[in-house]
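Holo model, flavin-adenine dinucleotide. Inputs:
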Amino acid sequence: MTQHHVVIIGSGFGGLFAAKALKKSNVKITMIAETSHHLFQPLLYQVATGILSAGEISPATREVLHRQHNVEILLGTVEDIDVEAKIVHWSSLNRKKQTSYDTVIVAAGAGQSYFGNDHFATYAPGMKTIDDALELRARIFSAFELAEIEEDPAEIEKLLTFVVVGAGPTGVEMAGQIRELADKTLRGEYRNFDPSDARVILADGVDLPLSQFGEKLGNRTKTALEKLGVEVRTGTLVTEIDEHSVTMRAKDGSEEVVPCACKVWAAGVQGNPLGKKLTDQVGAEVDRAGRVLVNADLTLPGRDDVFVVGDLMSYKNVPGVAQGAIQSARFVADLIDARVSGREPRRTVFEYKDKGSMATISKFEAVVSIGKLKLSGFIAWMAWLFLHLLYIAGFKNQLATLVRWFVSFMSNNRSARNITNQQMLGRLALQKLDKDEFDEIMSSVHNVQDETAESKNIDEGGAES
Ligand SMILES: Cc1cc2nc3c(=O)[nH]c(=O)nc-3n(C[C@H](O)[C@H](O)[C@H](O)COP(=O)(O)OP(=O)(O)OC[C@H]3O[C@@H](n4cnc5c(N)ncnc54)[C@H](O)[C@@H]3O)c2cc1C
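Output:
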């Protein structure tokens, strides 16, 4: 009898924890992900501001799972999932592939939403991937470099104004870090301006930063940010972004155009487009953020062989956080193992256990909310430090991160400050290529021809071409 074949799409928290939870099951697992690494998104802001290097938060998935012999890992982008034929259509570089499955776990996560203003993305990158963080790092540090050679005071002011849109954890962390970078790390390094003059504006339509942490911690966050020198503009909507400025509208209707070079988008998520492709096939629905409205056992309505976990699922207000992905992945893995081995599952209905939320504001200052327990300041920061270290994949990365943090927190130094033009321009340059130009470059790199003929011979699963 052939082994039950589970295809997992994505190597984030959902994908990785689903694979790990199936380690002892009698299944063959194929993980298809469009990045070769597992990404610890909560620390992306530290890569963007030069504290950590990319590798420290994104170990190769192959390395993380190398001892788990029932998993094969394939680098590729899933384009579609045919739920009737039970086939995943994907491509790797320019090669078209198909993989059949018995059960599929879709853990493709969510991307950035610009709320219908997609042109903002050109000027205000989001923060979802390593590429995003490196692009932002290049934009942030190059603003200081340009200020050093600029002579026009108005231009210098523009270069030294940073606008972060979105006052959730990512926005708060980014705003706090850019201020600390300017005020402490870069102190005394430039000859023609004072980096501590840098303005950091944090804008959001809500009334308080970190509003999901409650009023007390929201107020505490606002005070701590202002003490750092961040201008907190809550109750403020960003209505336009171009290369030179950000336009903001306050609650009273007044508009202000703030000249600034570097903008960061940390507002809004949009479920991966694979979600809609799934629901369209079975007549199910996605929510307003494009996440799949799943059944209580996290299956796609009408398909008990298709599970959706993590940020891409929409179920009973489960938040888009790491624990939501981890818990849903483990729940689904147990259901699959139970089906394959003929035992009863531990639970048949998914219940999310809220383990709390936390965010750092600056060095030694964080907020933690666990049920009724609200912590802030140094104790909260220690809790944040401990927990984040615990969840970074791989002992090597944990150790490296700990050393980096020690150096950075004790001395204000940041050792990952290198920037390149490729990091800064790569995304926008790639968007300008048409398909022929892209294919030409691709084939010159790997001698990969565009394979339009789709693969055949799909039998027991695995990658067929
Ligand atoms: C900047 C930032 C900060 C955060 N901070 C926190 C925090 O402090 N605490 C917390 O709990 N949560 C935090 N989160 C949320 C947390 O990271 C997510 O909830 C979690 O990563 C969701 O896991 P996931 O597996 O569903 O999706 P992801 O981790 O996004 O993984 C998606 C995977 O799918 C792959 N993929 C996507 N599309 C395709 C495709 N078409 N084909 C193949 N593969 C594909 C991706 O490459 C990736 O491997 C943060 C998120 C961000 C972006």
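The radius of gyration is 23 Å. The longest strand covers residues 27-33.
Archived with the compound record.
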